[in-house]
Design brief:
The protein is of the alpha/beta class and 325 residues long. Helix content is 42%, strand content 13%. Strand 6, helix 8 and strand 7 form a beta-alpha-beta unit. Helix 1 crosses helix 6, helix 1 packs across helix 13 and helix 7 packs parallel to helix 8. The structure holds norvaline (NVA). The site of norvaline has 8 residues, from helix 7.
């Protein structure tokens, strides 16, 4: 079963296949999702993930159905998936009509529980731990910016959670240089750091990290940040803003990285908080390209997953270890 809950389950060749498929389908007239129905279940708000993915599915000939999350989910409390019937019964019914489930949830456990019983693919549209759809889009942007086969140093400034974690997973599996800086109180666990170091060693990339931005920013080709307050963390706003003081990506921080550095942000962005308007609007900001690529990469992800081609991607002829080489 081709679920996509996290990129941890995907090899470099499979990630590569999703990226290549995205570019092949970007401007084509092919309709690999003809007659496919994709159910969208969103517990949290979304602009880019819903619209970018919906346009992609429409262009590939598929159909999107939106359900009310309160009917399908129980706000992340996966003890009882639905107040009307069991998760198993709900999913079995959905599978009679739909070909995949695209879900944004508060708790990753909800997705795991769905995937364990679902006969149709479950695709993560963001949870508190992972954001694989954003990561595929961002790696596509980075690959287009620096060229297939060329490495680059991507430094993430900010919160050690879903966006950064999935981005690192994809970048390190494709041999990029990755760096992280953020406050100690919202840092990676030892297990996470060991995992990133292991990926860097396995796929000839590199991973460095520090609580001090000055240690990792110099020489970065990309400086990336995300909101300091993720969806569902609004009650932590005052506390987190205190801890993240000094990690705003502003012109001074970009100048420490160097004149070669581009800026990236998954958005929604908060001007004057994690990034200044001047950096967000700067000519070296890639945010518009990132947003466009949410649509392009969704084509590659859905077409690859629903065609079943990903299971063949690890055959020797597909086994690439570097970024596009
Ligand atoms: N870390 C953010 C990402 C939004 C796309 C959140 O989880 O809200």
């Amino acid at each position: 079963m081709n679920h996509l809950l996290s990129l941890k389950d995907f090899s470099p060749a499979q990630i590569q296949l999703m990226l290549d498929t995205s570019e092949i389908l970007q401007n084509g007239n092919e309709t690999p999702l003809k007659d496919k129905h994709i159910l969208f279940i969103f517990e949290k708000p979304s602009l880019r993930t819903v619209l970018g993915t919906e346009v992609a599915i429409n262009q590939l000939g598929g159909h999107v159905i939106h359900t009310q999350p309160e009917i399908m989910l129980s706000q992340g409390k996966n003890v009882e998936f639905s107040s009307r019937e069991s998760m198993k019964d709900t999913i079995m019914n959905v599978a009679q009509w739909c070909d995949a489930i695209f879900a944004r949830v508060y708790s990753h456990e909800t997705l795991s529980e769905m995937a364990a019983i679902s006969p149709i693919p479950v695709i993560n549209a963001l949870c508190e731990k992972y954001h694989p759809m954003q990561a595929i889009a961002d790696v596509l942007t980075i690959r287009q910016q620096f060229g297939v086969g060329n490495s680059a140093k991507i430094t993430f400034v900010g919160d050690a959670n879903n966006v950064a974690g999935s981005l690192f997973e994809a970048l390190l599996k494709l041999g990029y240089s990755v760096a992280f800086t953020g406050p100690e109180s919202y840092y990676w666990s030892e297990a996470d750091l060991a995992g990133f170091n292991k990926l860097a060693a396995a796929y000839s990339g590199s991973f460095e990290h520090s609580t001090n931005p000055n240690d990792v920013l110099p020489g970065s080709d990309v400086v990336y940040t995300d909101t300091f307050i993720s969806m569902g963390e609004e009650h932590l706003t005052a506390e987190k803003l205190g801890h993240f003081h000094g990690y705003q990506v502003n012109e001074e921080m970009m100048s420490i990285a160097g004149p070669q550095a581009y800026f990236m942000h998954c958005q929604p962005a908060h001007r004057g908080v994690e990034v200044t308007g001047a950096v967000l609007d700067h000519e070296r900001s890639l945010v518009k390209k990132q947003a466009f690529n949410r649509m392009v990469s969704a084509k590659g992800v859905f077409a690859s997953l629903l065609s079943g081609k990903l299971s063949d991607a690890d055959q020797p002829e597909h086994a690439l270890s570097m970024n596009g080489a």
